[in-house]
Amino acid sequence: MTDTLSIRDNRTGKEYKLPITDGTIRAADLQQIAVDGEPGLATYDPGFVNTASCRSSITFIDGDAGILEYRGYPIEQLAEHSSFLEVSYLLLYGELPTQEQLDNWVHEITYHTFLHENLKQFIQGFRYDAHPMGMLMASVSALSTFYPDAREVKDPENRTMQITRLIAKMPTLGAFAFRHVQGRPYVYPDNRLSYTANFLAMLFKMSEPTYEADERLVQALEILFILHADHEQNCSTNAVRSVGSAEADPYSAVAAGIGALFGPLHGGANEAVLRMLKRIGRTDHVADFIEGVKDGQERLMGFGHRVYKNYDPRAKIIKKACDDVFEVTGVNPLLKVAQELEKIALQDEYFVKRKLYPNVDFYSGLIYEALQFPPEMFTVLFAIGRTPGWLAQWSELVEDKEQKIARPKQIYTGIRTREFVPIDQR
Ligand SMILES: CC(C)(COP(=O)(O)OP(=O)(O)OC[C@H]1O[C@@H](n2cnc3c(N)ncnc32)[C@H](O)[C@@H]1OP(=O)(O)O)[C@@H](O)C(=O)NCCC(=O)NCCS
Question: For residues 269 and 376, what is the distance between their CA atoms, to the nearest angstrom?
Fold first, then answer.
């Protein structure tokens, strides 16, 4: 349905009628609203808080209702019934695969997990204390030099090849980065294992001939990957789309996404939750901590979200996964602190009034810690899970005829034309 918006420019008295489509007006339509000799009207929107940059059919979020859907399928159903590779296929190709399609897809991914030996040497060149996210970002970027044909972004077959490679190699890169920091030999992929079981083997295998992770732990990590697989136009996805809009290859675009995810405002919150829980330490300290939050001295990490003003649907699923993991690893005493915090916060007027509910990061750090990941690896796990989402968004961008190179406007606030002053006269 097309409605219209009437605008009267009080500077000129002129009236304009702009079409409204899908709850938006086109920013370019505002350009006709101009005072003689001046550029037309534009919008000012730092952080894109109210600007749609694309049309997308991948992920739907209703933050008020606490709904998250990939291609129309509720996240709860996907987490319960699906695998990470099946969800990746869904995100990329729009439909759940048939058994035959899934078998082919899993086969393709499994047989592209190995890295060129030179890339291994590249990772070995990092210092012993390099952050695994920095290593991951650099090595994904380096992949573009191994596959120069990836620059043929207009060729759909070529795109499929690079997408397969990237999803397949991310766990290998993440695991090599992890082993590098540990000073342990890198473990090569084992094609007999599933995507996630293989990742755990590359991380933790020592001298045993085959590393067999507990199936419940594999399943928990698989669910975490599914929950992180896409979240529409977040900061890192916007970075991927922005670089992709210049028709750069997908390795360069995804490396940009990893860079954005590295930032503490985006991918680093679960680490902060864990630090907070450790600081609180015991359930009988929770009430005091909550008072500190209400006084404005603290922030309850893992609570609140820019989009969700209801229980983050992913947090509910993670809470359940916690039980399964702790059944294997033994209960982390910090779980009790987290549960007490949640219980008190959900009843407290301060949090209720502000619609602050647990988000995806509230429990995920506890699971990662139970799985023996050091905090620096948490964001790497996020990046592996988010890769199919980044690539689905990149594919959509490349195929979208309406898209242009990302190039925002600015409001210039500097000095205008002046004469150059020679250095001895300044
Ligand atoms: C996620 C987050 C940045 C969203 O921020 P936002 O949408 O800009 O919300 P605001 O910062 O405007 O918060 C609205 C109100 O709730 C309060 N608030 C928001 N999150 C809070 C939290 N975690 N603890 C205590 N108070 C919080 C703010 O102080 C503000 O109160 P006021 O109206 O009295 O000033 C914010 O909730 C936060 O910092 N949460 C903790 C970090 C976290 O878990 N991040 C992971 C997100 S997946």
Answer: 12
* CB of 300 sitting under 6 A from ligand 1: yes
Choice from 286, 354, 361, 363 to test ligand 1 binding pocket (greatest atom count within 8 A of CB): 354
What local confidence, expressed as pLDDT, does residue 331 receive?
A: 86
pLDDT tens-place string over residues 370-383: 898 998 999 999 99
75 Cβ below 6 A of ligand 1: no
Give the largest CA-CA distance in the chain.
Answer: 80
Cα-based distances in Å from 322 to 134, 333, 356, 378: 29, 12, 21, 16
For ligand 1, whether the C-beta of 318 sits within 6 Å is no
Which protein residue has the closest C-alpha to ligand 1 atom 31?
A: 354
- pLDDT higher than 90, residue 320: no
pTM of the model: 0.93
Query: Among all residues, which ones are annotated catalytic?
Result: 266, 305, 361
Q: Which amino acid is at 207?
A: S
| Amino acid at residue number 395 | S
Q: Which two tokens stand for residue 160?
A: 């499929």
